[in-house]
Structure formats: structure tokens, C-alpha cells
Protein 1
Amino acid sequence: MPVKKIKPYFLDFSRILAGLVFIYSGFVKGIDPLGSTYKFTDYFVAFNIEFLEPFALPLSVALSAAEMLIGITLLASVHMIITSWALLLFMGFFTILTFIIALTNPVADCGCFGDAIILTNWETFWKNVVLMFFVLYIFVKRKNFSPFFTKPVFEWMTAVVFLIIILGISAYSYLNLPVIDYRPFSIGADINEKMSVPPDAPADEYEITLYYEKDGDVRPFSTDSLPGSDWQWVRTESTLISKGYEPPVTDFYIESADDGTDYTYAILDDPGYTFILVAYNLDKSSRLSIVRINRLAEWSAGYGINFICLTASTGSQIEGFITETGAGYDFYHADEITLKTVIRSNPGLLLMKNGTILAKWHYRNIPHADELKENLLSYSAELQQESGNKLVTYGYLLALFLIISLLKVIRPGVNSSSHDSAVNRRPDGRN
């Protein structure tokens, strides 16, 4: 196929590829605004700009909305001059930023795809470099795109409608729980399994170098070629050459708030039901559902069901919380970062059995005691079914939006080659 005929297809391919990457990146952040908020906070702390922490949540929502909006407008060829400039500036800024982050490595995971795809900082940078090639091509050819809509007002309406939808997704996920949970503590996850290492899993491999000294001369030696007894050992260095298997959950523990006794497996291996109230910081936790939580704890005690609270707060904070709220359940310590990962709510509630998470609730949706049934397994199954139905609905809506946007590719007479012909045609109809 001649190069001239390939160019329009490559231009559409570049537009679709960049659009899908931006939509996916923005979507996985948009459905988990608190996750991106925590990531922003990590960066602010790492770069000693903690004064920006109050802006972490607005920046999280703004970033996801900008990515999704750029992606949607790319797919639908909406205002391509403006979109191409926004795309270039966005990618240029973050390519430079990710290069700096890769060099300094202040945070191990950049969070560019949320918890859906974990990339190292260097992997993120090289991903941006590859994508930048297509972005530059889109920018250079920005005048070769034809609008999907014949009237500019419809282009603006498309952008505004999608922006409202994007912000609505973020608002819903913030006020409730993420509509899709990519973390290892999702409903149905077996924490024991997530913490275990398979017997045949590869282990870390290290290269051992030993340094010996003789007559003031220090030389490195491998373990296979050690020097004679006239050499004196100085030091040993180990270098990781191959990373082995790392389980999805590594920092989950449950300790007594009084003496630090480990209760992790005693609680995870409990064959009965356990309600776990997760509040990574009791001083910052919402008091909106405290009455409902206390009644649920009382209801649980009446049916012989465990009800505990996991927190990273200090003993004095726990005592103050009990005095303020009248909490009548036991408190245990856990890692703060892990608790933020377990549930995006402070406090949030889990229902667990045999180490498996059966249900999760945001503090705004804590169930009333009279809503619960004695057979909690059946009740949790109903909740999972409702959650699954919502997920399918969101999936269908997103697929519909993408299909509508992709119509630009197959709509006759609006590709780049037809645009070029229209531009170069003379008023008398001849080229």
C-alpha cells in the first residue's frame, strides 16, 4: 500500500491509541480519587512541599478529569486544534516530570494507572516516551482532522456532557467506594492467600561480592574464587540481580493495641463472621455513622459475631475516641498505609469469614442492624450481586460512549484524506 494511503490510517491509529490510553488512565484514577490523593500526598512529602497536601484531592479529581476529557475529545475528534495543544502540553510536562521521578525515585510506584497496572518509575517514563511519538504526530497533523459534528456547538456540548459524566464518576466513587476495586483487598479476596508465597515461586537472586585486603590492596572476589589465607576480609556486598515473587499483600498485620501481641492469623483463620471497622486515623475519621456503628456492634455481640476496629492511631487517640463515641468493641493496631489500601473510607467496614472479605461498606452506607440477616453469607451474596449489576451497568455505559466516539473512524467522508482533498479543492470543483 502506498505511503500516501497509509498516512490517514496511521493518523487515526495514533489518535485512537492516545485517546484510549488517556481514557483508561483517567478512568482508573477517577473511580478511586482517594487513591490518587494518597499518591499526591506521598509526592508532596517526598519533595518537602507538605503545604500542598490540602490540594491533593482537588488535584486528583482534576488530573483524572483532564485525562479522560482529552481522551474522549481525541476519540471523537472534538476541537482537535485545542485538543492537540492540550495533549502535547500534558504529555510534555509529564514526560519531563516522570524522567525526574525516575532519576530520584521518591516513590516506588508513580500511580499513573492507579492500582490497575503497577509500573515502576522507569517503566512509566519509557511508556511516556513511546506515547510521545504518536502525540507529536497528532500535533503536527492537527489541521488534518475533520470534525465529527458539523456544528461547533455540538462539539462543545459533547465536551461539557462528558466532563459532567467524568466528574460524576469521581464524586460517586468518593462519596461511596470505587465502582471497580483493583486492590488486593477487593470483595471476594482471600487475604491469607494474598499473603502466601507459592512453594515453586522464584526467590530473589543476589550477586555476592567479597572484598579482601593484602598489603593495602583491596580487591573484589566472587564466592567461587576466594583468595588465600594471606588476604584479610574487609566487607561483603550483595546486589539484587533478579527480583523473585512478591505476594500482593505484604504489610497486613493485626496487633493488640495494648501490648503488641500478634493476632493476625487468629482473626484471619476464624471460621466465624467478623466485622472489622477500619479507621486508619481515629482523629480524622467521620462521626457521621457512629451511632449506627455502635448499634451494629451491639447487634453482633448478641449473635456471637466478632466486631473489632483496626487503626494506626495511638493509645491516647483510641482512649479519646472511646470516651467521645462510647465505642464498646476491641481495638487493634495495623499499618496505616495498608489500612488506606484496604478500604477507601475512614472509617469503613468489612465483613470477613475465614480470611475472605465478603462485603465492604463506606461509612455513609453502614447497614442498620435491623437490615442484617442472621445468615450473613446469604446477605453478603446479595450485596455482591447488587455490586455486580452496577458494575455491568457502568461497563455498558462506558462501552456505549466509546462506540459513539469511535464512529468517527468509520463515518464516511470525515477522515484526514477527505479533509485534505476538501482543503485543496478549487472553487470550480477541480483540484
Protein 2
Amino acid sequence: MIKKINRLKNSNCIIFDIDGVLIDVRKSYNSAIIKTVKYFLKKVIILNMKIDEEQLFSLIYSLRHTGGFNNDVDTSYAIILLLCYYYEFLKYKKIDLHGTLDQIIKKLDEKGINSLEEILFKLSKHNKLINDQLLRVKNILNYPAPVGQSIIATIFDEFFYGPKMFFKRYNILPKYYFRTPLIDHDKIIIKKSTIETLSKKVDGKIGIISGRSRLAAEYSLGKFLDYFNNDLCVFLEDEKREYAKPNTFAIEKILTKVNDVQQIMYVGDAIEDLIMTRKAQEIYKLKFLFCGIYGCSINPTKLIKNFKLRESEIIVKDVNQLPKILNKV
């Protein structure tokens, strides 16, 4: 799907997200969420509750649709709190898992875990046992404190980075996970020919705004990262937490280093990416086009629908389709 095709020729800078766009992370980041949630339910909080991976993936997708869960540790934390609320509520009334949790998730917004906590504690304020249990879990997780202080942030990154990279990143010895890092399951999607073609089209003005760290980007992209203009790359895991998408901090940082930009095309796979570009367009009075990628989504059909509802200018399955689209302009 392509809208306003006459506007495409004006883009002279292209910024990419990494996860779900340049790299397929379904067996890395998504698996880290699943493993983290299961670890806590079984070994930390100890809920006698069975939930399969399909149900967890559904919750991941629903949370990402809100635009406030670009951070996968946030997503893990949210799912644990939601499941604890559900488990405690079952003691008083029979309720449907997804029917109940979906109603809560639909009320969430780009404030992410702050909006989740506000809603859950409001719902449980008249039931002291449920409220106390949520507070207990929240205190155990100690989030959003950083790795080394928050057990959930620490365990998630141990799963994702593995023991060697975890120590390299944080200078902290791992405590919980000593096996193969899930980052090894990252799969590069973008082709060399795609990067070369797009870079030539915008005179080398191609960059990255990603929620991951530079270390993780370098590890998974390898030599592919050399194609991107370093001045136009922002790795938000290395920045302050409040700068995460959909905050426009990364775009502002890039705009201080790029000249003569007529229009920026941002290529992303999530609603918070789209929200970020819309905000930036209003703040910086610069034209943005959004290209939504859906090929690695947990639920491609719903993501396409959501991109359409928010009037994404381009919607394609694979980033490697972009050169052909731009060549037609």
C-alpha cells in the first residue's frame, strides 16, 4: 500500500528502526520476553498458573499496539503485572483471560507502564488482597530501576545478551543465565543491495533510531552497520530512559547533524515509531513519511489495519521492497 506517491521523491534522508525492520527478532527479543515472564511466574513470584506461548505472544502484540511499549523489559513487566492481577481476581470471580486483560490494555496509552500501574491499582483499590499482591510483585521487580538493581531488567538482559556480552555491557557478573544468548537468534533481513541502493538515492543520508544498544546493533548487524551514517544513528538503550520512543529526542539529535533535509522517511514496524514521526512533524515543522513494515509482526493483519488507521504513507511486508517502490517515483 502506498499513499501520496508524489511526495516520495522529496525524501532525501531515510531513518530505519532495527528490530522487525533490519533484523527479525522473533526468536531473540520476543523469546526473551517469553522466557523472562515464565521465569518469574515459576521461580520468583510462583503462581500456580498455566499460560501458553500463543497467549503470551497475543499479550505482547496488544501491548505494542498501545504505542507505549517499545522497551521489551517494559513489556515483560507489564505482562507479569497483568497476569498477577488476573490470577488474584480469579479467586473472587471467574473471568476470561483475554477478554479481561484486553479491556485493560485498550485503556493504555503511550505512557506505557505508568498508565498500566495507574489503571491496575485503580481497579484493585477496593480489594486489599489484590492490591497488596500487586504491590508485593511491584516491589520484587523493582522496575524501572536499571540492570543490577531491578531483578527483571537484569534477568531479561542476561537472557538476551548471554553471560559474556552481559558482562561486557554492564561489567556485572551474571547470576541467572549461563547458556547461549538469545541475541544469537537475530536474523538479518535487509540485503546489501537494498542498503546500497537506498544510500545512493539519498546521498548517504541513511541512519538508525533503535531501542537497542549500540553493542547489540554492532553484534547483530556486523559490517552492515558501516553503511549507515554514524551521525544519523541513535541507540536509545544507551540514552536516558525518558528518551525512549515515542519521545522525539532521537529525531532532534539527528536533525542537529544533518543539513538540507527536505523530508525524512522513517521505516519502522511499530505504532510508537509512527507516533514519534507524527509528533516530530508538528514540533520541528519538517515533513516526514512513515513506511510501516509488517513482515515480522506477531499479527501482521492487525498491524496493517493499525497502520492504515493511522494513515501510514507506505505499508510493505519487507524493507527490501523499498528500492522498487522508490524507483517507480
Protein 3
Amino acid sequence: MAVSYNKLWKLLIDKKMKKKDLQAAANISASLITKLGRDEPVTTTVLMKICSALNCDFGDIMEIIRDERNGGR
């Protein structure tokens, strides 16, 4: 399984925010923004900060991509 943060980037566009704006609003580091941009896993604490800053839920900013080669695991 993999994680995708495409929903986050679309939400930022809808809110007319840049990644720098998210970084400041959520009080997270530039390296975490980079990890999100690479669809790398981050802690739930980081996700909670982002959701709090954007007034949304986990499902609004990320999704789990199932690996079909391994039977959806």
C-alpha cells in the first residue's frame, strides 16, 4: 500500500493557498512539506496539524492506494 496526498494539493488550490502558506498555518517544517510532495508517510501528529489548519479531516487530504499486484495489500 502507498499513500497519496493529491487531495491535499487540490484542497490548497481550492483555498488559494501555497505550500508555504500551509507550512506556516500548520506550523510544520519545509522537510515535511517535501515528504508530503513525495507521497511519503508522515506521522498522524503532522496530519492532525494540517487538518486543524485547513479545518478538514484525514480523508480530505490523503488516500491509501492499494497495490493491486499484492492482492490489494
